[in-house]
Each structure stands twice: as C-alpha cells, then as structure tokens.
Design a protein that fits this description.
Strand order of the largest sheet: 8-7-6-9-10-11-12
Distance between the termini: 37 Å
CATH architecture of the largest domain: 3-Layer(aba) Sandwich
Largest sheet: 7 strands, parallel
Strand content: 15-25%
Shape: elongated
Order of helices and strands: EHEHEHEHEHHEHEEHEHEHEEHEHEEHE
Structural class: alpha/beta
Oligomer: single chain
C-alpha cells in the first residue's frame, strides 16, 4: 500500500467562503498525480481542468487569464510575461522540489503564493543515488553495455564494495540527509558540505571547504538547488581536486556540472565512473532526441531525470502540495510558501476573515488600523508577517458588513490586494 503524507496546519472544517468553491478555476498540467485532484474535490473544489502535458507560452497566456490556482511540474515556465496575464491568480503549486520554473519575484509582487514539495520525494531520489553508487563501484554500466553488444566482461578490475569507501554529499538538505543515512547503513564513511550549518545525523561529518571534501572522497553526490552560486560548481578547476579514479553522481540540477569539462576528465580517466540524472538541456517530450556528449561513454550511467519518479513519490507530492493550497485557500495560512511571509492561522467560524496583502512600506499598517477605527469595526485578532517586499496581514473582525471597509483597504497606497476570505 502506498503511504500518504499529510501536511495540514489546522483542521479544515470551514464550509463558508466569500467566493463559491465551485467557481474557483483550477488548472492542472503535466500529469500531476490524481491524488491532487482527489484532495481538492474532497474539500469542495470541483472546477478543475486537467491537462496531461506542458503548454507553450502562448497557450499558457490564454489559459491562465481566468485561473485562480495553477499546478505545474518542471516543464511549464511561468515567466514574467505569462504571469502578467494572470489577473485572477492566487496560488501556484509546483509538484516538485524546485521552483526555478516560476518567476518568484513577479509572483511575490503580484501577491501570488507559490508552494512546492520539498519532502515527499526525498526517499525516491536517495534510493536511486544509492543504487547508482553501487552500480558505479561494480562497473555495471560498462559490463551492461558489453553484454548488450555480445561482449562478456567477467572481471574484478575496478570493481569494489562500497563498504568503507568515502561518500561526499554536496548539499545536506532533505535528500542529502536521507542519502547519508542509507549510505552509512551500507558501511560507507559519509561527509557533507553545505553553505549552512547543519546538524549531522548519525556519524556523518561536515567539511569546511569544497576542496577539502573533493580531495578525500571516493564518490561525490550533488544535492543542491539551482542558483548563481551552484551553476557550474563542478568545472575544470574543481574537477581537478577530485581523487584520480573517483566517481561522480549528479541528481540535483543540470547546471551544477559543466558537462564539457566532465567529458575531458572522463576521457583522461581522472573520473572513472559517473551517473548523471539531470542535464543542462533536456528533451521536452518522449519524441525529442536526447543529445549529450556523455552518450559516448559506456562508463557513464545516464537516466532521464527520474530521481523523484516513483509512484509513491508522485502520490505523496500530490497530497503535499494540494493540501498546502487548500489550507491557504480555506484558512489563509501560508506556512511552507516559498515566496510569501509565513503565517500559521487558527480557524474561527464566528468571525469575518479579511486578508490584506501590501508592499512592505511604513505607512500601510497605520492606514489599515485607521480604516477599521473610522468604521467602528472591532478587530478580534490580527496576524502580520513581512518579508523584504511584501506584508501579509490577516484580520478577524466581528461584523459581516465589510463592503465599505474592503473598498477603503484596497484604496490604501501600497495595497496589492485586499479581500474577504470568509
């Protein structure tokens, strides 16, 4: 039985909303798992369009005009141009770990909350990496290629147990920690490098510098996000630090490894084996040819970006992201939003809940409170969180007559959006 991960901030017992759930337009793209659809329908959201492929920019612009929630995976690109046409958009769900396919700054400035799934596929990626490490140490890629071409390489040359070998993990986050635990179970010595100070699990040791780790590692595995600091992190200079005859695994982002430099180090034998799951340029669909200079090497395991592609991970991702969005839509809580101030809210059915999203400028809070005071509306509870660009304020008020106050809130300079949640 496939296990399900639930991420619920507070019980979603509310039934009243300011906008009928049946009128909320939801668009799903790219084979988002049916568990996401099931979660939304169970919570009263029925107006769902489900498209099982990615859309190009023109198609997206046309579709997104009237959408309130859009759910995507890695191929859909929500650029500034696309988002500029999304006049009703409230939230984006990225059913994957990364969010680099979304212009997060534009979404933030528009008041669109973006949620992703940093937890549900960690085990799937870690298991694939462990399998690839074992295959690398046993030379399976070359032996498999020869067997398919009528060869028979029955030899222990360059074939080793993983027990006692040094694994270096670059990026000790959700996946890196899982990988470290599995590797230690196999008897490996595990080290990690991360730009943030982390609590090591079990006997895993940290190293202070990138170079120091490369020099001691038998196999290096990358688990970092795509940023300007991680682009071409492994290049001709840093590859030179790696032990001669060592192994490389990249299941993080295709831009982390400079492929042309890796080719030269594979040709020289300095890097003995490699396993690559992500690439700088990847086919858009099944019919498009995969092009890479790494195809020429029998000592490189090539997989088509499948680290997180298990049925368990896809189902769990569907539940994780959709429940975050349901909670945001029904309750207003923004915990785990990647571009929003995070606010965890209780649920009170006897009040009217108003959300005010604004630019983070000095005068807004005074203007908000002045508006309520002038209209003699008591605020029974108020929640505020800010980040560098925006402020997210939630107010529970003891009145149903909010039309006038809502208009005044929207007229305050710096307001992005004010609305009644329920």
């Amino acid at each position: 039985m496939i296990s399900r991960l639930y991420f619920i901030i507070s019980p979603l017992t509310m039934t009243k909303t300011s906008f009928e759930k049946s009128k909320i337009n939801i668009l799903l793209l790219e084979w988002v798992h049916e568990s996401a659809v099931e979660t939304f329908r169970e919570n009263g959201y029925t107006n769902i369009e489900y498209i099982k492929w990615a859309l190009d920019q023109d198609q997206l612009i046309e579709k997104i005009k009237d959408v309130h929630f859009i759910w995507i995976r890695s191929r859909t690109k929500l650029t500034k141009e696309v988002l500029s046409h999304a006049k009703r958009l409230k939230s984006i769900g990225c059913f994957c770990i990364g969010t680099n396919q979304v212009d997060l700054e534009t979404a933030k400035e528009m008041g669109v909350a973006v949620f992703n799934a940093p937890f549900s596929n960690t085990r799937s990626v870690a298991e694939l990496v462990i399998a690839e490490i074992i295959f690398l140490f046993r030379g399976i890629a070359e032996k498999n290629a020869l067997a398919h071409s009528w060869g028979w390489l029955k030899s222990a040359v360059n074939s080793y147990e993983v027990r006692g070998k040094n694994l270096w993990i670059v990026g000790y986050g959700h996946i890196g920690t899982q990988l470290g635990i599995l590797a230690e179970d196999l008897g490996m010595n595990v080290y990690y490098y991360d730009i943030e100070k982390k609590l090591s699990l079990w006997n895993v040791k940290s190293k202070k510098t990138f170079k120091e780790l490369l020099e001691i590692s038998d196999v290096v595995s990358f688990h970092v996000p795509e940023t300007k600091d991680t682009k071409n992190m492994l290049n001709k200079e840093t590859l030179a630090y790696m032990k001669e005859g060592s192994y490389l695994v990249n299941a993080s982002r295709g831009t982390v490894v400079e492929i042309d430099d890796l080719v030269r180090y594979l040709e020289s034998g300095h890097i003995l084996w490699a396993a690559i799951d992500v690439f700088p340029s990847e086919p858009k669909g099944k019919g498009e040819e995969f092009v890479s200079p790494l195809r020429a090497f029998d000592n490189v395991i090539l997989t088509p970006h499948i680290g997180w592609s298990t049925l368990e991970a896809q189902e769990n991702i569907g539940f994780e992201v959709s429940q975050k969005i349901v909670t945001f839509s029904d309750n207003g809580s923004t915990i785990w939003a990647v571009n929003y101030p995070e606010v965890s809210l209780p649920t009170f059915e006897w009040v009217t809940r108003i959300i005010h999203l604004h630019m983070n400028v000095p005068w807004v809070l005074n203007k908000i409170n002045e508006a309520f005071a002038k209209n003699e509306i008591n605020i029974s509870a108020q929640y505020l969180q800010t980040n560098d660009k925006i402020g997210y304020m939630v107010m529970d008020v003891e009145t149903d007559e909010v039309a006038n106050i809502l208009q005044e809130l929207n007229d305050i300079p710096g307001t992005i959006r004010a609305r009644v949640l329920y």
